[in-house]
Amino acid sequence: MKPAATKYGEVEEQLGRQTARLQALRLRTLAEKVYQPNQYATNLSFEEAGRRIDALRAEIELADSY
User: Fold this and answer.
1) SS (H, E, C) 17-34
2) What is the domain extent for residue 39?
3) Is there a domain that residue 29 lies in?
4) Is residue 57 part of a domain?
5) What is the mean pLDDT of residues 31-41?
6) Is residue 3 part of a domain?
7) What is the pLDDT of residue 2?
8) Which pTM does this prediction carry?
């Protein structure tokens, strides 16, 4: 068993990977919901994925307002 990460950098790196995985999953789900699978890509930066998630959420809100 690997010992718990004691260095701040290791913890931050582990959290970054986890956040990226969760963010990618959220992006894929939203892209499928609005029938825009090309919005999902695995090589996006954290910031770009966040922008796409925000844009897809806005599109869903707009569609729900009709």
Assistant:
1) HHHHHHHHHHHHHHHHHC
2) 8-64
3) yes
4) yes
5) 93
6) no
7) 47
8) 0.70
